[in-house]
Amino acid sequence: MPRVDGFVGRRDRGMSRQLWAAPAALLLALALAACGDMNRFQVASPAVPLPPAKPKPVVTSTPASEREHERILATYGGAYDDPQLEALISKTVDRLVAASDRPDQGYKVTILNSGAVNAFALPTGQLYVTRGLIALANDTSELSSVLSHEMAHVLAKHAAIREDEARKAAIVTRLETDISNDSDFSALALAKTKLTMASFSRAQEFEADGIGVTIAARAHFDPYGASRFLTSMERNAELKVGKSSFDPRAQDFLSSHPATPERVLNAQNIAKQYTTPENAERDREAYLSTIDNIVYGEDPSEGFVRGRRFLHPKLGFTFQAPENFTLDNTAQAVIGVREGGSQAMRFDVVRVPAEQSLGDYLNSGWMENVDKASTEDITVNGFPAASATARGDQWQFKIYALRFGSDVYRFIFAARQKNTESERNARETVNSFRRLTLEEIQAARPLRIKVITVQPGDTVESLSHRMDGVDHPMERFRMLNGLDQHAQVKVRDRVKIVVD
Q1: SS3 label, residue 41
Q2: Which of 110, 375, 400, 406 has the most crowded Cβ, counting Cβ within 10 A?
């Protein structure tokens, strides 16, 4: 959750309708972005000798690309500073550029401070890769497969085409939304536009895979790194089932780069043109040494989730969600969903003038159908607050505004049916909001990847028990280390675990 943002005026009204009144249609719109037709890429020609060395090309930015760069940094928590990792990536990109058909094309890679597994490119050659993706990879060849894939999007002009299509889609969607106040209609219009784009994008993915695997092979990286990493990303996505889809930070590589079985098989078939799986450079040992101690998951500076509790050490508060709720810290808000989907909650920060009472704010029109007679001034652990109820077509709402220092925080609880349990859940969650102690703030630190050497007697089970702060530790250990469900660790192998 960001330091201060919020939804005011018309944006708040849109949040109320889109997030709660039509979640199914909105989720459908997002899901359809990953659908489309399959078009297999034709295998590229065999490798050619590397071109002569040339001066390192430079990325030429434009005002538009600079604005997009700043927007990306703001969305993904800024850049992640790690000189050793930056040096590894720079060296890898130099090898890939020299092996490409356009060694004159410049690239600049930014590591994003996000636990999401994602990478993307701008038409100018600006490449972005998250630390979450870097932590998931197990060797330099897997990372090179992602970088060469994104380079391929630039070389084949896919990034420019996608940017143009996205611009057109935004115009169409804005027109559709302005024409109709029906959120279902707007969401489905967006879904239709995204489906058209995704159909074209699917074909681009196969083409970029072919170009990317070819570049990696020419640069003498293991070309099978692509198929291995696609498989790891697919397993990572399976562990995210049930997480919120409203957060741009949470959208992973598979959201725009679907790892279908056909795509994995295609990447394997292209790799076969160059080498066998056992006869190529992976650079595993050096890679693991470089990513040892990299931050894993959420950055505490943006607040983080531990079980049912949300903590924000920088802002100095915490609260706990009800039992059977799963919390997800997104760029806009903390979203909670009850198992089964019958209840949900949202927690965010808004700007409210100091002279405006919290009760007046709740009745100011940012949410529709608020029962003004239900508005009540209350106190929560010494903090001034106000509560009210609201009613929608399918959801019943209990809303709170709480003033903490100079900020105002909102709790919005939604239940399909108002009952004793939903009322209790809302009340107990709000009452759990409190100031963090100094000891809690000092103890709040990010999870990190630790690379260890397997000792005699170590097993997947025993090593997974050493994982801190993560769900599904055994499945996550296997996923992080590229181990299938039957594979076992070997003595003297180096493996990744997550530690606090």
Answers
A1: coil
A2: 400
For the chain, give percent helix, strand, coil, nearest 5. 45, 20, 35
The CA distance from 199 to 56, in Å, is 36
* Cα within 13 Å of Cα(465), Cβ side: 4
Indicate if the pLDDT at residue 21 is higher than 60: no
- pLDDT for 189 beyond 90: no
Quick one: pLDDT at residue 41? 23
Alpha-carbon distance of 92 to 473, in angstroms, equals 31
Beta-bridged to residue 128, according to DSSP, are 110, 120
User: 19 or 346, which is more confident?
Assistant: 346
Contact 226, 145 (CB under 8 A): yes
**Tell me: domain 446-499, CATH 3.30.70, correct?**
no
Per-domain residue ranges of the chain: 35-294, 300-442, 446-499
**Secondary structure class of 353 (helix, strand, coil):** coil
Q: Which of 220-224, 241-245, 331-335, 474-478 has the lowest average pLDDT?
A: 241-245
CA-CA distance, 25 to 447, in Å (whole number)?
Answer: 35
Contact 107, 151 (CB under 8 A): yes
**Does pLDDT of 151 surpass 80?**
yes
337, 298, 334: which is closest to 433 by C-alpha? Answer: 334
CB 101 within 8 A of CB 154: no
- The tokens for 385 are 């607050």
Closest residue by Cα to residue 382 from 355, 400, 405, 349: 405
b/e sequence 380-402, b meaning 16+ C-beta within 10 Å: beebebbbbbbeeeebbbbbbbb
Provide mean pLDDT across the span 373-380: 96
Q: Return the CATH superfamily for domain 300-442.
A: Mog1/PsbP, alpha/beta/alpha sandwich (3.40.1000.10)
Q: What is the pTM of this model?
A: 0.70
Rounded to 10 degrees, what is the CA torsion of 194, 195, 197, 203? 140
Distance CA(72)–CA(60), nearest Å, equals 18
**pLDDT higher than threshold 50 for residue 166:** yes
